[in-house]
Task: structure prediction
Amino acid sequence: MVSVRSAPPDIQATPRRVKLLKTDVSRRTAWILRAASILVPLAGWWALSVSGLVEDTFLPSPPDVWAAGLTMVESGDLPADLLASLGRIGAGFGLAVLISVPLGFAMGTLGWAQPLLEPVIGILRYLPASAFIPLLIIWLGIGETSKIALLVLGVVFFNTLMTADVVRQVPARLLEVSAILGAGRARVAARVVFPYALPGILDAMRVNAAAAWNFVVVAELIAATSGLGYRITRAQRFLQTDRIFAILIVIGLIGLTIDITLRLVRARVGRWAQ
Result:
């Protein structure tokens, strides 16, 4: 008698919860986490400054920093220096964007532009912009021109390559469909490639805006008679660490404002990319 093995009954697998790498949180939780990211370090700073473990000269308390900031505002020094630094940022970063975006767009769309420009830009981006300060002073003097040139050198090469990478990510199907419909190269570049790449271009600008702030402060530390970097140097000479902390906080807040502004612009012009 031959035994016949019966087939195992169908087992319906129950779906298991998969832990995703990226999970969403509620809006309330997000705001709580944002507040904690600021309040927890602030509380730690406050506790350390009042504990007596560190002298006030090296780590002033938050109230002392606030008072120093108000003193500089009332004297007019902080607003004047802030406007000077913002003017240099606007000129240097704006000029770097005007140069880098067209170059990056060309590298991403024109077959001959990438092999022509990428090697030299790839080399130049590894040269520290601050190393050019002595040359810029020799060539352009210690006026505004050398400071703006330092900002351009610090931003333009990175922003060019990042823009080119974004432009190259435009799907080939979009280009093929546009060509089938009879659109010329200039029309495809203006009506298809640029709108698709614009959110990524704005993201690149957000990243490099932080670098621009770093370089403007470096430039003002070397040779300047105004600006936030200059004010930091003045405070360092007299061990006014409370003023240094106040200026650093202002720099951080202005940088955050620029970042949020560019995020809002990106969200508005690139809603489809959300």
Q: What stands out?
A: The longest helix spans residues 185-222. The radius of gyration is 27 Å. The mean pLDDT is 85.
